[in-house]
Design brief:
Radius of gyration: 19 Å
Shape: globular
Order of helices and strands: HHEHEEHEEEEEHEHHHH
Number of domains: 2
Strand content: 5-15%
Strand order of the largest sheet: 3-2-8-4-5-6-7
Largest sheet: 7 strands, antiparallel
Helix content: 40-55%
Number of strands: 9
Distance between the termini: 45 Å
């Protein structure tokens, strides 16, 4: 049983790839950039103190799911599962997922990466490989009950998506801008100061300090830079679409789009493992300062 209209594009942010693939499967009239912006993912930056590559995965996704519904895509979390347990017995979970696939619903999981569940065969679920054929990872199959492809350490979530009535577009855009400001103000007011992960400006602070501490040539530095550069590309595309939809806001929206495109280029440079630490710190400092201004500038885009 395979869903023939379901596929996952090769985004660096595999979460965006999953929701984009689901939206296309359901025929939703929304671009990947619009999905990324309306959901708030375009503004995300979440950095571990030691630049662990888990940054793009270890954050509270509940606000993301709430805003994603504004774009017409509802998400049902089925819970977290680990090596020895989970939110329900595996057989029950698998029955729910098979039932959802039989209904034509797009489901996905996140273990090491987010993967759409394309269907199932007699032995297990068929899962998307977002970077195939160039990269044979993550696994393209999940054996029923054993989940043997995941190895000895399992930490996995499952989700079912459904189309839902979208919110009025102007209100949805305004809410996404509120989310952007919230990500930055929440991190700035000290609520995440004790965490090993930092959002917004605190994320940049953690990144810069991690480079000073010798982590700038790590895989985590490269992966965080790669994912968050893509997010800023999407933010730029989102703002250009907003400008096209609301001509009275086009000048401000396009100016902000250029700013986010500039931040994206800086983050791509910062992702380079071989870039000297002093150069990397200078780029990140510059990017953080511009992002603060850009988030403030979103108040000037009025989709009404």
């Amino acid at each position: 049983m395979l869903l023939q209209t379901l596929s996952q594009p090769c985004n660096n942010s595999t979460l965006l790839g999953c929701v984009s693939g689901a939206a296309k499967h359901y025929g939703l009239p929304v671009s990947p950039a619009m999905l990324c912006g309306l959901s708030g993912h375009a503004w995300l930056i979440n950095i571990h103190r030691q630049l662990c590559p888990s940054g793009p995965y270890c954050w509270d996704r509940a606000p993301f799911f709430k805003l994603l519904a504004n774009a017409g895509l509802a998400t049902e979390p089925l819970g977290f599962f680990w090596t020895e347990g989970g939110a329900m017995p595996r057989a029950e979970l698998e029955q729910r997922l098979r039932g959802a696939v039989d209904e034509g619903l797009a489901c996905y999981l996140v273990n090491m990466e987010y993967q759409l569940i394309l269907g199932y065969d007699e032995t297990g679920f068929v899962t998307a490989q977002p970077w195939a054929p160039h990269v044979d990872f993550p696994p393209k199959h999940l054996t029923f009950e054993t989940w043997s492809e995941l190895g000895s350490e399992i930490h996995i979530d499952f989700y079912i998506t459904r189309p839902t009535p979208a919110k009025e577009l102007g209100a949805a855009i305004a809410e996404s801008f509120d989310q952007a400001r919230g990500m930055w103000s929440e991190a700035a007011d000290g609520t995440t100061a004790a965490s090993d992960y930092g959002l917004g400006p605190r994320g940049y602070d953690y990144w810069i300090q991690a480079v000073r501490d010798g982590h700038g040539d790590s895989h985590g530095n490269w992966w965080n830079g790669t994912v968050y550069a893509e997010c800023r590309d999407q933010a730029a595309g989102y703002l250009r679409e907003v400008g096209n939809l609301y001509p009275h806001a086009a000048a401000v929206a396009n100016e902000l789009a250029e700013g986010y495109a500039r931040v994206s280029e800086w983050l791509k440079r910062a992702a380079d493992k071989a870039l000297p630490a002093d150069d990397k710190i200078a780029i990140l400092t510059q990017a953080a300062a511009l992002e603060r201004d850009l988030v403030t500038g979103l108040a000037g885009v009025r989709p009404e």
